[in-house]
Design brief:
The complex is a heterodimer of chains A (about 270) and B (about 180).
Chain A: E1 7-10, H1 14-24, E2 28-31, H2 37-42, E3 50-53, E4 63-66, E5 69-73, H3 78-83, H4 85-90, H5 92-100, H6 104-109, H7 112-118, H8 124-132, E6 135-140, E7 143-148, H9 149-152, E8 153-155, E9 158-159, E10 166-173, E11 180-185, E12 195-200, E13 203-207, E14 214-215, H10 217-224, H11 229-233, H12 250-265
Helix pairs in contact in A: 5-8
Chain B: E1 2-7, E2 10-15, H1 22-29, E3 48-51, E4 54-57, E5 70-72, H2 86-93, H3 103-116, H4 122-128, H5 139-153
Parallel strand pairs in B: 1-5
Antiparallel strand pairs in B: 1-2, 3-4, 3-5
Helix pairs in contact in B: 2-5
Classes of the chains: A alpha+beta (about 270), B alpha+beta (about 180).
Chain lengths: ~270, ~180
């Protein structure tokens, strides 16, 4: 499968990338690792006229501490997030989640910013960022803005990111000692979650339970009111709207959400 | 556009369409046929090659993205005198292949895995090859091959295995000119 023709531009800086986006308008797409975009282009679900390659902009990559946050550059690859001793110490759930994405080859190419911008409701990192309560740094023609993760995912494969904007970094709270859990239910190797649950400090996020990654609000509320893990987990599917496919129907997904939420609240991974 | 890159130790310069996939560049422009096109959807790993020593799926990469970088295919693991790499030799000795279609990808993924983790457990080998499918289901001997290669490259207890190595260390990748 071969993508439709496009022009290829290499951005030399974030400002250059933004000016290229401004020049080419909605026909342009940003390319980093290409592990969400290229598969879509190969089956012609995406046919951008121009690709702006941001993978060579060194300042968009890297992991650093900034006050009480860890800042991860948008083009930092999953393998780097997974292997980061800084993240393993300060936000271990994010390092763990990055190691669950796809397979080693995919983690050598795919980037954290690309995964979040793609906004797949079944993916590991959107769910994990939602549990962490982090934020996303976005730069556009009019300047830089920071969007809290609760406002970032707005629909299936749709985020608050505008076509003329560049996601530059992800910010997550430092919390090396915060209790967390992570559950991803798959039938096949290197697949997306049939249902996923990420728990961090009383925040419970679900994957594949609706059009966006979702907070399990009823579970969180119950925990705040002093409910047991078992009682709170029983509410995990409340207010969700899971779809169905050949792996699972909606009722089964709801069941999985309750079971996996209990395990995640118990601090289990897997 | 023009790309310049190193493929199996040889510097190349070619005019390519931006939409040309790396796997097509390797197989059709350079006539390097070891990497196969299997699923063409980033799943099966038959097209795995090394990019600067790290395993990648060349069906999900544009040739222009490899501009200025170093690509290694299974052909590039073989020394000029025809000697196979330790990983290739281990696959041969342990019968780590049946039909052979997945083998070049398996060998490249294993080479990358051993560079990152010189002493993998059996479980780590299985998880490390998660991105490579063998439709003959010959996984047992493939895992055996990788464990044997690990022992050869850095014998248990040897100093060679105590430090992280790059893909060229210990003969995992042989560069041929």
């Amino acid at each position: 499968m071969i993508p439709a023709s496009f022009d290829y531009e290499v951005a030399e800086s974030p400002a250059h990338a933004i000016s290229l986006l401004a020049e080419h308008g909605e026909d342009a797409k940003l390319l980093a690792g290409g592990h969400s975009l290229l598969p879509m282009m190969k089956v012609r679900l995406a046919q951008p006229a121009v690709l702006v390659d941001i993978a060579r902009v060194t300042e968009l990559s890297g992991i650093r501490l900034e006050g009480d946050e860890v800042v991860i550059g948008a083009t930092t690859r999953h393998a780097e997030v997974a292997g980061s001793s800084l993240l393993q110490a300060e936000a271990p759930i994010l390092a763990y989640a990055a190691a669950q994405v796809g397979d080693p080859q995919i983690r050598h190419r795919g980037t954290i910013g690309g995964s979040l911008a793609h906004a797949d409701p079944a993916a590991d990192l959107p769910m994990t960022l939602l549990a962490l309560g982090g934020s996303v740094e976005i730069t556009g023609p009019t300047g830089t803005r920071v969007v809290g993760v609760d406002d970032f995912f707005v629909g299936p494969f749709e985020s608050a990111l505008q076509p003329d904007e560049l996601l530059t970094a992800v910010r997550v709270p430092r919390g090396g000692s915060v209790r967390w859990g992570y559950q991803k239910f798959v039938r096949r190797a290197n697949d997306w979650a049939i249902v996923g649950v990420a728990v961090y400090d009383g925040r419970v996020a679900l994957a594949s339970m609706g059009g966006t990654p979702l907070r399990a609000s009823a579970t969180e509320q119950a925990l705040r009111s002093g409910a047991s893990i078992e009682e709170a987990a029983a509410l995990a599917a409340d207010g969700t709207s899971p779809g169905y496919d050949f792996h699972a129907d909606a009722e089964y997904r709801a069941h999985l959400a309750r079971v996996l939420t209990r395990r995640a609240l118990e601090g289990k991974t897997g | 556009m023009e790309i310049k890159l190193t493929v199996n130790g040889v510097t190349r310069s070619d005019e390519v369409e931006p939409r040309l996939l790396l796997i097509h560049y390797l197989r059709e422009t350079l006539d390097l046929r070891a990497a196969n096109i299997g699923c063409d959807t980033t799943s099966c790993g038959a097209c795995t090659v090394l990019l600067d020593g790290e395993s990648v799926k060349s069906c999900t990469m544009l040739a222009v993205q490899a501009n200025g970088r170093s690509v290694t295919t299974a052909e590039g693991l073989v020394a000029a005198d025809g000697t196979m790499s330790v990983v290739q030799q281990a696959f041969r000795e342990n019968h780590g292949l049946q039909c052979g279609f997945c083998t070049p990808g398996m060998v490249m993924a294993s080479t990358s895995l051993l560079a990152e983790n010189p002493h993998p457990s059996e479980q780590e080998v299985r998880e490390g090859l998660e991105g490579n499918f063998c439709r003959c289901t010959g996984y047992h001997n493939i895992v055996r091959s990788v464990l044997a290669a690990a022992d050869t490259l850095s014998p248990p207890g040897s100093s060679a295995g105590s430090a992280p190595t790059d893909a060229t260390a210990g003969g995992a990748v042989r560069k041929s000119a």
